[in-house]
Amino acid sequence: MKTLIVITGPTASGKSxxxxxxxxxxxxxxxxxxxxxxxxxxxxxxxxxSADERRRVPHHLVEILPLDSYYSAAxxxxxxxxxxxSIWKKRDIAILCGGSMMYIDAVTRGIDDLPTIPDSLRxxxxxxxxxxxxxxxIDRLKDLDPDYLATTDLSNQRRLIHALEICIxxxxxxxxxxxxxxxEREFRxxxxxxxxxxxxxxxxxxxxVDRMVEQGLEEEVESVAHLRHLNSLNTVGYKELFAMxxxxxxxxxxxxxxxKNTRVYAKKQLLWLSKDPAIHFLDADRPLLGQAITIIExxxxxxx
Length: 304
What we know:
This protein is of the alpha/beta class. Helix content is about 55%, strand content about 10%.
């Protein structure tokens, strides 16, 4: 039976480096589970694997789409499973690495079958949002799917817009289509994440942001500023520097805000991880590769 090793966890925890070491150890390849690394042209702000890491180990689903491409967790499920099939023609083990938890779930649990949204409807809802704001989206959802509205983050515009699109296209509430049932997979799954004190994680995040700025994040943002309306750029690092360009934030304020918002995102990732009993946590104070191999080998032995 094929085995998928999942290396996940909060941003800046060191998962990418561990995934490369494991891939080298098992002689296999990595599928990225990052909702922003899939886009081209923004390698600094999305912390794509380095050129050295990609030389050492083949990576799938990294920098494959232009910034204006529509993408979703459902599409990722299809693409990731296809990439895994190609790996498993040669290997018995594959690695999935990333911190986009919906993408991790898409592969390990599956996404509910939802209707495809035509470009015409997507443009219509986008126009509604741009002309009347997020409240207009919320008001429509109050009528079409109050149950979903009662349980979701009302500040997450992307999810709210997607929910409204589904309601209109399907003709039924989005919440009625969300089964929450895991799909059967024809491969074993072993999940791991790196655990460290929150203060240390936050320090790593702060230092990563400083390093991104040194590497040219501001120049990268400037190169894509004409595309700032795209959803692919509606993310930490770009939003704050766009605000700096607009004179809303000073340079120092923008950089500090990037670090703060990244820490907030990491907290959300940690909360998600805490709710998954299948995850094996690795102690950051001990050699990670050795811990991971021990867990993998023991899990394979127990499941055989």
